[in-house]
Amino acid sequence: MSEPAITLSRELAMQLLKHAQTSPQARVCGLVLGTDAQAREIVHLRNQAESPELHHAIDAQEFARAVSSAQTRGLQPLAVYHSHPDSPPMPDDDDRAASPDSTLRLLVISLNIKGVLEMRAFTPAQDQLRETPVQIFL
């Protein structure tokens, strides 16, 4: 069964890109929150990796607080996002392990762009990640 596309407004897509651009030499990370597959909010989380230019790590307690806060407002986590400052938006070997919830989709934002925002989503399926569509609307 295929997962529904993650749907982002242009405004939320730009918030993701802006967050990634605030740290062009290091990875940023956070949560995409929403209802069903419709994104409603972005939550920035601190990257606690020892080498943030190469990896990302999210504190489990900070993640749990963000999820709990979202749920009190009727939102659910749709994806864990992070940026790749100088590589395509494809998850690397450590990306799946870096997520505090291995059942959530991964959204990877690339800053290795030539004028076009590039982000891709991936859904965990057994021992692999399957690409999931991302739709951006005005």
Automatic annotation (TrEMBL):
Keyword list (alphabetical) reads:
Hydrolase, Metal-binding, Metalloprotease, Protease, Zinc
Tell me which PROSITE patterns the record gives.
MPN (PS50249)
Q: Which GO terms describe its biological process?
A: proteolysis
Among its keywords, does the record have Zinc? yes
Q: Which InterPro entries match?
A: JAB_dom_prok, JAMM/MPN+_dom, MPN, VirAsm_ModProt
Q: Where does the MPN domain lie?
A: 6-128
Gene Ontology molecular function: metalloexopeptidase activity; zinc ion binding
Task: Enumerate the residue ranges of region (Disordered).
Answer: 69-101
The protein's matches in PANTHER family, at most eight in alphabetical order, are given as: CYSO-CYSTEINE PEPTIDASE
What is the protein name given in its UniProt record? Mov34/MPN/PAD-1 family protein
Q: Which organism is it from?
A: Oceanococcus atlanticus
